[in-house]
Structure prediction request, 187 residues.
Amino acid sequence: MKQEPEDLGPDGVRLERIMQSLDRRPVHLPPRVRAAVMAEVRARPQSAWARSWDWLAAPRLSPLAGLAMAAGIAALLLLRPGVDTGGRAETVGSSSVPVRLILVAPQANSVAVTGDFASWDPNGIPLTRPPGEGVWSVDLQIPPGLHHYVFIVNGTEWRPDPNAASQVDDGFGQQNSVLLVTGRRAS
Prediction:
């Protein structure tokens, strides 16, 4: 049973008149509007470095979070394995720095790591674990800089590092871990 606008009272009649007066044809924007929107999208920083810088420069961290991040980075640098440089001093700006990545995943059958330092290889760099333990690790040589990475658990699950000092949006609805690698002078 269809209700007539009069049955809906004076408000219904007004609503029906408004609905009838609406132009329901598709809206076609001039090509210059589309070009302007696309130019704005292309002008936005797309590189990982630019996204990282935008994230770091944004005032979203509390002083306490910034302090925790600095402490985490310092701990990563202090806990990495010693390097035998053969009596040579390792200088800032060297081509790569030793870094150990660790993931506690006792239920995992395999763990790998991928990131910008591995060209986001979907197979990743395998981590190893002592038999019967759930602590996976890998020692890498990574160039100094800010790097994004994730662990690949059981070949399919991309998981950010829960021990990383920072996480960033990967642009696809997931999180990447952030690793700051600094060159240093060894004594």
